[in-house]
Specification:
Alpha-Beta Plaits, four-stranded antiparallel β-sheet
């Protein structure tokens, strides 16, 4: 049985962001959206000064997180640290279950 854990990835963005980086933003956003939609990515946030990104991934191992990060076009430009989380609490507003009645 596979157990999933949550991992936080703390990204440092480059100080100088060039046109190559900017050209990859739409592709980055598409990967983020896909991973959010299928639940592999739980949270994705950018600091106001645009120096840091944070992401929470659901995965069975750190290796799986690294494999997912390879799908992100901006990964080669970013310094990152991956941390296994003991827990991750949220206060999301859940939608009520749909009832056909």
């Amino acid at each position: 049985m596979q157990t999933d854990f949550q991992f936080m990835v703390d990204f440092n963005l480059p100080e100088e962001i060039g046109p190559d980086f900017m050209d990859l933003l739409p592709q980055q956003r598409a990967v983020v959206d896909d991973y959010l939609a299928d639940g592999r990515l739980v949270n994705y946030a950018l600091s106001l000064e645009r120096a840091k990104l944070w992401a929470i991934f659901t995965a069975s191992s750190e290796v799986e997180v690294i494999e997912m990060l390879l799908d992100f076009p901006l990964t080669p430009y970013l310094e990152m640290e991956i941390s296994l989380l003991t827990y991750y609490n949220t206060n999301e507003q859940a939608l009520p279950a749909f009832s056909p009645n």
